[in-house]
Amino acid sequence: MHSMSVQETVDRAPAPDALREVMAGFATGVIVLSVGGTHIHGMTANAFSSVSLDPPTVLCCVAHDAVMHQAIRSAGHFGVSVLGAGQERLARYFADKKRPLGPEQFDGLDWTEGPATGAPLLRGATAWLECELSDSHEAGDHSIFIGGVVAAERAEERSGLLFFDGRFSSIESERS
Fold first, then answer.
1. Taken in order 105, 113, 36, 160, is the CA torsion positive or negative?
2. Res. 1: pLDDT tops 80
3. CA 40 to CA 32: how far, in whole Å?
4. Considering the entire predicted model, what is its pTM?
């Protein structure tokens, strides 16, 4: 079996636009990452995953040039609001680079301060997590932030917001 060198692998890698097109075929949930306190900030993300149940651990990926990148590094913790089907407007808002920064970006929104981290958690979400940053790894133009879950809660709401093929969609749970 032939093993490729790092350079051969890089030379064969798809262009960013081609990879974006391929990855559009992967449906993901939609979250808003948040940091409270002096670094208060929110950001829509879909690169988020459970890593371990014991100990409870999740990961999120954030671009190096995103405001959230430095906010998580500085604060050492983050919150996660898992968006429900009716929260597409919030997903678009927190993805908009033209929105206000700092505390003003949360003006007029329905949120509560996470009891463990102080991170803003959006009401109406289907679930919330609060995490202490336990590790990070550089991966290209992003960092993979590993968070130890210190608080988690699930809402009664059972509809989820999805992102697929460049568009938002929703899914309803069959549970009542």
1. negative
2. no
3. 13
4. 0.87
